[in-house]
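Quick one: DEAD/DEAH box helicase from Halovenus carboxidivorans, structure tokens please.
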Amino acid sequence: MTNGAQSGRIDDAAAAFSLLGTELRSALSERGFETPTEPQRRALPPLVDGENVVVVAPTGSGKTETAMLPVFDAIVGEDTFGISALYITPLRALNRDMEQRLEWWGRTLDIDIDIRHGDTSDYQRQQQAENPPDVLVTTPETLQAMFTGEKLRRALEDVEHVVIDEIHELAVSKRGAQLSVGLEHLRELAGPSQRIGLSATVDDPDEIGKLLTGDREYTVAGVDIGSELDIDVRCPTPTEEDERIASELVTDPEIASHVRAIDEIISENEATLVFVNTRQTAEAIGSRLKEYGTDIGIHHGSLAKETRIEIESRFKDGDIAGLMCTSSMELGIDVGHVDHVVQYNSPRQVTRLLQRIGRAGHREDAISSGTIIASHPDDVLESLVIGHSAQDGHVEPAAIHHGSLDTVANQIAGLVMGFGEIQAMRAYEIITRAYPFQDLSEEQFKQIVREIADNRIVWLEADDDRLEKRRGTWQYFYQNLSMIPDEATYDVEDVVSGRQVGTLDERFVVNFAEPGEIFIQGGEMWRITEVDEEEEVVTVSPIEDPAGEVPSWTGQEIPVTRQVAEGVGELRAVASDQLAAGGSDTSVARDLTRRYEFGPETITAGLEQLSDQAEAGYPVATDDRIVVEGGAGSLVVNACFGHKINETLGRLLSALLGQRTGSSVGMEIDPYRIELDVPHGISLADAEEVLRDTDPEHVRGLIELSLKNADALKFKLAQVAATFGALKRWRGTGSTSFGKTRLLDALEDTPVYDEALRELIHEELSIEGAQDVLRGVQSGEIAVETVGEHTPVGTGGRGSGTELLTPENADASVIETVKERLQNDRVILFCLHCQEYERTKPVKRVRDQPSCPNCESTQIAALNPWDDETVAAVRADEKGDDQEKQTERAYKAASLVQSHGKRAVIALAARGVGPRNAARIINKLREDEDDFYRDILSREREYARTRSFWE
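--- reply ---
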């Protein structure tokens, strides 16, 4: 078949199984599988014929058996030394599930099945090398390591089938790019083995097919996912009962109404998964549900493995009725039958919703049912669009990492480790067979080879372009098996039971973790008893307290795509036209139910801002209209283009408007707004002029220039440098100990810098999308209108209140929690006069008017504990632009402390509150101390909304 050919369905229900041999049909009968599922009817014919196949079907619809039945059929009775089939999964937990799921088939068919990943014991590894199993279940990273063992390499020579589970999850990360080269490495050993990709949701199966097979042919066997979904969207309205619940749960009535709604759904079903978008939300909402008495467990990646397995088992056994979880549970971990799925807040992406709701209703011919609990007008409209798109089967395209240069560096070392030595051009040919690297030029490849040779990763024999191992190759390769960058984490251990509770990110520990502090993990309250920074362990004891701190974990916000944001814009256009013509909220909502088949009450809740906008006579931003509003230092560009395009347009506006005055322009974005904090003299017309006059062809250059001083690029550069071997992690010089500014200067004209920039743009921005918007504006396809004041829609963003679960009008108990947290946060006190005094201490130990004990100066800067680069910048004899900015920031902080004493120290200790925002808080001259902390909390919320581009 040609690439992308669609497999037809076998109409006779039993005919698909008839393609299998006698032993398989007998096992199927014994197992009780009389009728094949729809995916099996479509996929078995090409699979039995040995074709490469992409199987697209919902999670839990039997994709594993679909792939493995013909594989078992092909290898049953074979007598080979090596491994006949590899089953590759993205998660170790899935390894465990797959082994258990395939174990029965192995026993029945006399096929040896084993598992191998990072935690496999040395004894088991040795046994697998001496006597390889017929089928090995493993991860992409472990496959990389297997290429280096002499006996395992011999075992891999017999591989005839490779199954990659959840390939859509791997496709959008560098792990997928790395695996695609790994499969070509395997092809060098074993020849062209059959490749099978299993995916729950894809927009373009051909992209997945190319990632799977490289330059070979494949067939797509897919089923219509959207038609099997029953989706509801609800927006709970707080009641008097919720007011009472709110006071008990230390939250606000809106959150209480969400807790009550989720509890009701769990009570109505036997087994319910409740998906949230972040681990913080899982802990915060989960703890309130537990406090409310809901029968629920909490599951996310920062909980200890044993804790996760225990929770999975309790849910599967019916001991708990609900499971609060994050994205890791999308990937088919076996938790038994699920009746219903709740998505708390918009899932942000159609693919997310399909994968999550697809977990429910996996009995024969069952419909998967789910409910989105939305909380805000943006959230409601977004959920309506995503729910409608999911039912129509319209999902976002997979953003494959094309041409990731550090992956090439990683895989060159892998090929050298595997072959011992290899001609550079042979390595180039192997790598460029993989789909993500088919456009990699020879010149780029040579630059990468020279870079890693200079970094002592491989030996380049210049006379004949031969690549060989050297002393550093082994160390580098095993330090870089994974393309997921390392970030420091602390283990959390219960002093009572001795068990590991979970993990915490280093920044949370540094900023919050002091003995006596209280936080939430696993939905339980813990008091810190000890922090061992050398061993990276936080010891805790369990307590009962409804108001612990929710930990922060590293992770990206799920971006809303242009497809979804423009869908919201289109909905806005229809609704606002009807509202402007005199339609009421309820009549417009009833009309919209004809397209968006959800309750009119929910749609009405989503129209709240649009109704206020229409009443005031303001225009509304839609899919083909931008509205620029505001004035007096604050502009909002209302644009329905999604996170990445708005981030790009925002950076463009920030850079070009800042050039006009020589001042910086603050920026915050969401999928529908770009908020700009502009200096005096910048007007609405200036922002409009940027959109109308900027040459789209100049966008990339301007964005790359604006990123040069961004902390996000420096952080990414440190990660990529480690993958290139420019940072020797095994020598103890981790990325955080190397000055990021010096690193940028050293690597600016290397493939390391090129890759850091490429990856940052790929993950966070959309150059092409922004160019498209500018062309639309300049051609007149996208209108631009201005409003000389702020409007209900412009000021009504999603914000972070719901995600952080902190009331907008924080009550006394919340303020007390914030106050205690800030008093225990640590700051660096640094004397700018003598530059000799530097101490780190909790805020509560800072005197009312700090002064230097050496020179008695009151010119004391209060800095965050990780801000040691600012101290170094002040002390530097010669300063670049970055050091000048850091020095200026330090002097502004010192001026505040000199004028306002400890009050300034408290404001500067808050999260994301620099000297400028601290000055704004202080200048409000709040007499009520609680109002002072409310102002700080408000600024922290704004910071939580920002993305990763603060400079």
